[in-house]
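The methods section describes the discrete structure representation at length, but only in general terms. The central task, working out the structure tokens from the amino acid sequence alone, is never made concrete. Nothing conveys this as quickly as seeing an actual entry. For illustration, here is how one protein appears when written out as sequence plus structure tokens:
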Amino acid sequence: MENPLKVLELYSGIGGMHYALLDGGYANAEVVCSIDISPAASLVYKHNFPCTTHCERSIEGFSAEDFDRMGFNTIMMSPPCQPFTRLGLQKDVDDPRSRSFLHLMKLLPAMQSPPNYILMENVKGFENSKAHELFCKVLKQLGFSVVEFLLSPKQFGIPNSRLRYYLLAKHNQKEFPDEVNQLGKVFDDIPLCLKRFCNNTGSKENPTKTLEQFLEEPSSISDEYGLPEKTLLRYLNVMDIVNPVSKSSTCFTKSYGYYAEGTGSVLNTGSTLDMSNVLANKLRYFTPTEVANLMCFPEQFSFPDGFTRKQKYKLLGNSLNVYVVSCLLKFLVT
């Protein structure tokens, strides 16, 4: 890496990409501007990064000249995933939420100084989309080398499943190692050339951690996190129930705590699980802090006063795993 990283953080959300940059420990690196259209996410971002220039507006309002004036050499982004999900009806480029990403594809070729590096995160399924095809075509025309992954935190030794698509791109004749220099392949494992940037990869030498390392002190958990009787009686059989020594948990979505099935694990704090006496079980939701811990946000991350539990879950569910992105960023720029 010749020059300090100057990052444009697009679709910045609550700052997961920014924290991944900080986790890398790069000298003189900075986020020159963060952009997100969500008022709630922007409040959280500015609360945690008050010194970063943040724009609460759509990317469609920016020109190539605007981007050139920012002086960034790296783009980190997580575009809206709904156009590529079943719940979002998989409308792909026809979804209005894809417009800003399509606009970005027009901006990159028009820039006088395109970035040296691009790191993008999205949902599994993006790799089969028309948007993916168009974006890779733009990157190829601009001379980027591209590597793609489908990875989950579980592969990095973190007891949480969150399978996501990642695209890494280098500009100006910068090549990736031969091990991953295979055009069109999406890697679903951690190659050796990436492992050297990871402290813990869920291997025999570095086993996956247990959930208890990510939990708050039991004495600090209020009764509001206990599962209501109605939920226990109706949905216990379809819930993913884990305990503190478990080495896995399911993906926490933006609907966690609202819908019972398929939105994230619940924690059994009792000694056993009694399916014959449902109400005797001591089950609770993971707190927003615990979800943030599993997504590897640092201890200093916080929400501004006034945010509800539902809002916190929603914003975290739309975010990313900081540690996974940090490892990929190191691999990209080194």
Remarks:
- Residues 143 and 173 are 7 Å apart (CA to CA).
- The mean pLDDT is 93.
- The first helix runs from residue 16 to 23.
- The longest strand covers residues 117-123.
